[in-house]
Amino acid sequence: MKHEPRTWSLAEMPDLAGRTAVVTGPTSGLGTATARELARAGARVVLAGRSPEKLQATASDITAAVPGADLERLVVDLASLASVRTAAGAAARLGPIDLLVNNAGVMATRARRTEDGLDLQMATNHFGHFLLTGLLWPQLVAEGGGRVVSVSSFMHTRARSAPSTTRARHRAATPAGASTRRRSSPTCSSPTSCSAAPRPRALR
Ligand SMILES: NC(=O)c1ccc[n+]([C@@H]2O[C@H](COP(=O)([O-])OP(=O)(O)OC[C@H]3O[C@@H](n4cnc5c(N)ncnc54)[C@H](OP(=O)(O)O)[C@@H]3O)[C@@H](O)[C@H]2O)c1
Question: For the chain, how many structural domains are there in total?
Answer without folding.
Answer: 1
